[in-house]
Specification:
Blueprint (H helix, E strand, L loop, with lengths): L1 H17 L6 H12 L2 H6 L9 H7 L7 H10 L5 H22 L5 H12 L11 H12 L9 H18 L3 E8 L2 H8 L1 H18 L5 E6 L2 E7 L3 H17 L15 E7 L7 H17 L5 E3 L7
Parallel strand pairs: 4-5
Antiparallel strand pairs: 1-3, 1-4, 2-3
Helix pairs in contact: 1-9, 2-5, 2-8, 5-6, 6-7, 10-11, 11-12
Length: 312
């Protein structure tokens, strides 16, 4: 029992170290929207003679409450805060901006006011910074997204996979992993050229995003191979999702697919789910890969699950 408790404590420590350091694609899009539409400047009164109500701005950018203030603070100085704390800080920053502007008899911009607030007023133990927002978001996007397909890249997948695995070990909450490979893709490339092959990969990712939920993580693992992380989905639900993906790809009309064996560009998928006897994320990857191999070996264009009584 002591060993189990120590293992759980170690997992919790690793989760704490990992923290919430990654932006996802949706968050990057939100931050770009705040920057492109000058929402920070509008919300703070920098470029208008009055400050818009936050509810009005939320409606204008089509954003639901829950991460609005967090995004505002992060867009300002690259500090990640919980939404409640970010809301309190935003209100205080606006007050601080007004006082500074009144004392200096000129408008002190929201960026300068926020930096001064965190450095001299709140005195937090971190280093707030102002950077070129567009350059930051472009760099952040390249760091987590596959350049061609705009799915998440291998690095982001590895981080998210590790977090889900550690959460599952500490909470017992299940999650599933799908590995997908496009069938006969080398033949497709040879027949149509790499440009059409790239287009097919982009279209395949669009299909994955259309079928999967916003909570799922679609990543390009390499070449024509993709992974999908399914938080909270046990094996039976993950198999249904995998089957929906397989059918959607098979039903899609890719260019010149009629020249392929079987006349269609299809996908094979391997599925596995976290269990207490799985020792590491790498073990789950191996299981999903074994299931994918069985799908390929049994005729392609099908879904196979890894079952715990099977041998690797």
């Amino acid at each position: 029992m002591d060993n189990i408790n120590k293992s759980i404590e170690s997992d919790e420590a690793q989760l704490s170290e990992l923290g919430d350091t990654n932006l996802n694609i949706e968050e990057i899009d939100n931050l770009k929207k705040l920057t492109d539409k000058k929402l920070l400047e509008i919300a703070s009164g920098d470029i208008l003679d009055h400050i818009f109500e936050d509810e009005v701005l939320l409606e204008q950018i089509g954003k639901k409450p829950g991460s609005y203030y967090r995004d505002l603070i992060f867009a300002l100085i690259q500090i990640r805060l919980p939404e409640d704390e970010a809301k309190r800080d935003w209100k205080e920053i606006l007050k601080h901006k007004y006082l500074l502007s009144e004392k200096l008899d000129r408008n002190v911009g929201i960026h300068v006011a926020s930096l001064d607030y965190y450095t001299n007023i709140k005195k937090r133990n971190f280093s707030p910074m102002i950077v070129n927002a567009r350059d930051y978001y472009d760099t952040a996007s390249r760091a987590i997204a596959d350049e061609l397909t705009k799915a998440y890249n291998r690095h982001f997948f590895d981080d998210e996979f590790k977090k889900l695995f550690l959460q599952a070990r500490t909470t017992g909450k299940p999650f599933s992993l799908i590995m997908l490979d496009l069938d006969h893709f080398k033949i497709f490339n040879d027949l149509n050229g790499h440009i059409q092959g790239d287009i097919a990969l982009i279209e395949a990712v669009r299909i994955l995003h259309a079928v999967c939920s916003q909570d799922d993580t679609v990543s390009r693992y390499g070449g024509e191979e993709f992974t999908i992380l399914l938080p909270s989905q046990p094996l039976n639900l993950a198999l249904k999702t995998a089957e929906h993906i397989r059918q959607a790809i098979y039903d899609y009309r890719f260019i010149n697919e009629q020249s392929l064996p079987g006349g269609r560009l299809s996908a094979s998928l391997g599925v596995t789910t976290y269990r207490d006897d799985v020792n590491s994320p790498q073990d789950m990857l191996i299981e999903a890969d074994v299931a994918l191999y069985r799908a390929k070996n049994s005729g392609r264009n099908r879904v196979k699950a890894f079952l715990s009584d099977q041998t690797l």
